[in-house]
Amino acid sequence: MDVEADRLFQSVQRMLPRFRPTRVRKALICEMQAGEEMLQNMKGEVHFAQYGSKDLHIEMSSLIPTGRWITVVLIGKSVDRADHPQYLEVLERFLKLPHIERLLPR
For a FRET experiment, which of 20, 24, 55, 90 has its CA 20 to 30 Å from that of 77? Predict the structure, then answer.
């Protein structure tokens, strides 16, 4: 985001001259349709994992059942460095991690 060109940030900076916006990072957020068995296994639970693997740099992830879907959120250097066409690859690699496969039986 180009803060210098954003009118909202320009207005805030005029009112608060010492205001400095925080750094922003990417997050990969997607929803996966889930089968009944998987949803029953996760019912009422939210799962967090604070690591990926040696090659997949994920600092925080969450798996949240929402209705018939599971919302997946990923944050980390692998997401920061990925471009839009690479997001699916990052997600697929994440879902193949052993500690994630144990949560999401196929």
Answer: 20
Q: What is the pTM of this model?
A: 0.77
Q: What would the pLDDT profile of 24-34 be if each residue is shown by its tens digit?
A: 889 999 999 98
Q: In the structure encoding, which two tokens stand for residue 100, read together? A: 């994630």
Q: Could you give the CA distance from residue 50 to residue 31 in angstroms, rounded to a whole number?
A: 19
Distance CA 39, CA 34 (A): 6
Q: What is the pLDDT of residues 44-72, one digit of tens each?
A: 889 998 888 999 999 999 999 988 899 99
Residue 59 to residue 74: CA distance in whole angstroms: 8
Q: Residues near 75 by Cβ (< 8 Å), separated by ≥ 6? A: 25, 26, 27, 28, 58, 59, 60, 61
Helix residue ranges, H only, 18-70:
36-42
Q: Where exactly are the structural domains of the chain? A: 26-101
